[in-house]
Structure formats: C-alpha cells, structure tokens
C-alpha cells in the first residue's frame, strides 16, 4: 500500500499555511499590473498570474473566490501530461475545506442499495486498483473565445488538463453495496458547500449503466501523487471522455437513486442544445436541451502562438496536442490554404483513448514574399467525428470544438 499512501498531517498543515499566504499575496496582486494577455476576441483580455494557491505553481487568475485558476497554455507544449501544480482549478461554491483529515474521511454509499457503506480511505486503497490516462476538460473551456460573447468564466484554452489517474472502479464500490433492481441513477456529492444555505449544493449524477461501465473510477492518485486539495483530495470521480462537470471532487457521498435526478445541477445547469454540435443561433430560443455529456474532438497548436513572427521563405515546423473526446484520436490534419486541402500530421505515442495525443507536422512554408502564414488544425476521432470548420455557439459557452487557427506574421 506504500505507493498509494495518503499523507495526513503534512497535507493538513501545508494547506492551512498555503491558504493564509494566498490571501496575503492576492491582496498584493490587486495593485499590480496585468501579467498576461489571453488570446480572446474582446476585452478584458488581461489577467494576473498567481502563485498564491496551495500546491499550485504559477497560474492564470480567473477568479479568487471560489478559485478559478487557468493553466498557462505553454504548459501544454511541455508534455501530454499536465503537472499537478499547473493543473487548472474550478469550484462552484466558495466553502471548500481548507484541509481534509484523511484518517477521519469517509465515503458513504447509500440509497437504493442492499448494504449502505461507510468506507475509510484504507478500505478504498485495499480494493483492486486501476490506472487510466484521461483529459479533464471544463464544459466551458475556451468560453472566452465565443463570439458573440457569453456570460460565465472567460477561460481561454487552459481549463483542461491530462493526468494519469489511479484509483478504484466505481463499479466495484457499487457492487460492494449491492445496487438494487430498479435503480436509475447514481449521484455524487463532495465536501464543498454553497455559501448561502438555500443555494443548491453541487452534485452530479450518471445513469446506473454508465456508473457501472467499469471505466468510471474513484481516483486517489493523479500523476503518481495524491490529489492536490484544490483538485479534489482525497477522492474524486473520473468520468473518462465526459466533461469535467461530472468529475466530482472531494467526493464523500454516493447515492443510488430509483428515480431520475431532478436536482439543480442536472435539471437546470450544464445543459446543452439538443442540436448538431450543441450549436444554436445567437438569440435563438425554444430549443430542447439535454445534460452535457461526451466530449468531442479538439486540437491545438502549441509552441507557436498567433502573432509570432517567422522568416520569409522559412520552413516552419508545427506541433500541438489533440484530444479525441470520448474516442481516441484517429488523425490530425493541417491546412495552410484555409481548409481547401489537408495534410496528415504525425501522431505521437498513444497514451490511451482519453489522453491528449501529441502531433507534429514537419514544416509549413512561409511565403517568400512575406505576409502571413495561416494554418488550421483538425482532429478526427476513432468514430470518424471531425472538428467542424465553424465554431459552434450556444448561450452557455459550452463545448467549443471548431477548428483552431494559427496566424503567423512572415517578415
Ligand atoms: N465537489 C466539486 N466537484 C467539482 C466541481 C465543484 O464545484 N465541486 N466542479 C466541477 C467542474 S465544473 C469542473 S470544470 C471540474 C474542475 O476540476 P479541477 O478543479 O480538478 O480542474 O471539477 C468538477 N468537480
Ligand atoms: Mo466546469
């Protein structure tokens, strides 16, 4: 069990100190000028960087309370796995425990089951262990690029991250409790709480079949370490291929339901238009909605950002990362003629269906006469689903996955 050891005392002290330091540093940060300009279509684009949050390195500060921390995009150029200290952070409510006592922590499994359980961390660690690489992507990743602009956190592309998760199958935990016939959904709740008592506690649910598919897991390790507190220490749900709204952090309560989950975060929030690409026209109303669910393919340029200068006549190597969504990456293609023709990029090692995949493209030619070098990147997943040329739009700013462009200045 040593590899799975979850520290108790040290985590608690470190976290408490960290939040204290954070509050001071944030006070100082307010007086500072902006550190970073996000590639958003309209202002405000400027953000401050912060190193003030416990177990986190330099992050883009999107909001202080509750913390919304974005991963600086250059991190995605450094490797397909996102280091824990640079992994993005998003919480809905500000009442988040500043520490979790691993010895006292319990995971309850209850509701429509044969035996209600109250598991210690040691109980969980003693169960068969599984490992899986998977991208955790916020439904609103890249929301700040929506045109026309929509309300909500104005993320650039950094509310996503990829990690190797180690934990136990949710199915094994549910089987231990014995899901009763007639169950329809399984609901997950974490230790965080709303600031005001009548606000809806953050909870999400999955269908019983999905919860028992053998891939959904309860993770206690992220990239070989215990989870950072802000990413859900000590346990979080991993729902491979689905948006991270379902990846409930600090999960402490699992309830098997014999009726559909009618609570706020399923019935009202996190719903998408039931249309192709979850897209509607700005101003359109009266469309049917469904809970957000599977991720769709995406791809990004890393290393070079729009606006960078390259030499006239140069051969410019391009590289980046891709994500297949709920299926693996089948192909990544590049176009330098606005999408008229496409050429295949080389794919890097396959780290698993739900992981980021590195891609490289030997070289695009910068025009000898100068001007611009514009490139497009497009991912096709193993189901043949292709990124659309046009960016989808919906009023919540969810599921951006249109083809992204790199626009270089040639001189
Ligand atoms: N307990 C709890 N889990 C949660 C949330 C939350 O507010 N509370 N937010 C969800 C959403 S919308 C996102 S984007 C991810 C963010 O995961 P991260 O902070 O580890 O990057 O956590 C998910 N799990
Ligand atoms: Mo999210």
Structure description:
The protein is mainly β. The protein has 2 domains: 9-269, Oxidoreductase, molybdopterin-binding domain (Sulfite Oxidase, Chain A, domain 2), CATH 3.90.420; 298-410, Immunoglobulin-like (Sandwich). The chain is built from 5 helices and 26 strands. A 5-stranded antiparallel beta sheet has the order 1-2-3-4-5, covered by helices on one side. The longest helix is centred in the N-terminal third of the chain and has 21 residues, at 9-29. The chain is globular, with a radius of gyration of 22 Å. Molybdenum atom binds next to loops. The site of ligand MTE has 19 residues, from strand 5.
Q: What is the CATH superfamily label of the largest domain?
A: Oxidoreductase, molybdopterin-binding domain
Strand order of the largest sheet: 1-2-3-4-5
Q: What is the level 1 CATH name of the largest domain?
A: Alpha Beta
Mean pLDDT: 93
- Number of helices, counting only DSSP H or I runs of 4 residues or more: 5
End-to-end distance: 58 Å
Class based on secondary structure composition and strand pairing: mainly beta
Counted beta strands: 26
CATH architecture of the largest domain: Alpha-Beta Complex
Summarize the structure.
With 411 residues, this protein is mostly beta strands. It contains five helices and 26 strands.
